[in-house]
Amino acid sequence: PTFDPSIANCDFESGFCRYSQEQMIGSSWRRVSVKPNIFRNGDHTTGAGYFLLAHSWLSPLSGYVSRLIGPTLPGNMKYCLRFYFSLRGFNQTDQALAVYLQQGSSQERIWTQGEKSRGIWITTDVTFQTSKPAKVVFVSTCKSFWDCGSVALDDISLSLGDCELTEGSALPTLTGHCDFEAGLCGYTQDKQSDSGDWELRRGPTPTSYTGPRADHSTGFGYYLHMEASPMLSGQSVRLLSRPLRGSRGPQCLSFYYHMYGSGTGQLSVHLHKDGEDALLWKLSGEQSVAWLRATVEYRSNIQHQIVFEATRGSSVRSDIAIDDITLESGPCPVTKIEAPVGSSNEIE
Ligand SMILES: [Ca+2]
Ligand SMILES: [Ca+2]
Ligand SMILES: [Ca+2]
Hints:
Layout: E1 20-21, E2 30-32, E3 51-55, E4 64-73, E5 77-88, E6 98-103, E7 106-112, E8 122-130, E9 134-142, E10 150-160, E11 177-178, E12 188-189, E13 199-202, E14 222-226, E15 236-240, E16 247-259, E17 266-273, E18 276-284, E19 292-300, E20 305-311, E21 320-329
Antiparallel strand pairs: 1-4, 2-3, 3-10, 4-9, 5-8, 5-10, 6-7, 6-9, 11-21, 12-15, 13-14, 14-21, 15-20, 16-19, 16-21, 17-18, 17-20
The structure holds calcium ion (CA) (3 copies).
One calcium ion binds at residues 11-13, 43-45, 49-51, 154-155.
Region (Disordered): 192-211
InterPro entries: ConA-like_dom_sf, MAM_dom, MAM_domain-containing
Domain MAM: 8-165, 176-334
């Protein structure tokens, strides 16, 4: 029987999956859901879900060693481990997060983080090989309270083979997925019925207190953005998908949107067919400082296009961004009802 590496996947939305911890005082990753603000992140999966947090404030001692241990992986295989992490408030980040491979009583470090403490979700991947059965261990170490901040961890995934050989994208290669890392993937700008174009952008936006600080796919990549500054209130930009085949059954569109800023206008998604737009989804006004996931199930039995339209609000703090659009045939997966954000484990 072939080994299914997805047993080591976890988005932490409904528990710890197959991960466990050594129960020691002052040494635990907590599963939390928090309402994001400019000082703390929401989760990576949906923007409103759960993630793991290791934080010196959660520890009764002045330092901690938090170890999260994965399921046993068979030996004689090559693996690609991917995950998202975010560091905040560290002066010394060298031991903030490391990944070890544990075989019996010996362990070997296979990855250590080398990022500044920037408070954004970034992804990384590690290729490793093991001759004997082994476990992956995520370790956050804080030696002195004063040098430490928080480490967040989310969306761990494991696949077989070398990370280098599986596409550069952080997500499994899906047809119908666009992360904007290599252009518009067949999406096109509307040149007729709007007042400007979506911009491909990387990193923070030029106006403060609006727009994302980084993209959703990797933390280093590109997203599509409507910069409010050169536009007038009520003007819009439109992005068109390539013509899509009709089908009898439902189709699922999912994407991430970023609507942060006091004057945020409207983001809408339309089904364009027979020369007309039909509204599928719409949201107005400031939503969150985090990237949030939207899913839209729709039907069209004839050829159609999907249109993303952002409309500028009343002020320059009106940026709207989108990233990681996925189009799949079939119904959208049923997502469990989320607990209200911030209802448990309020941090701060
Ligand atoms: Ca999550
Ligand atoms: Ca991206
Ligand atoms: Ca345009």
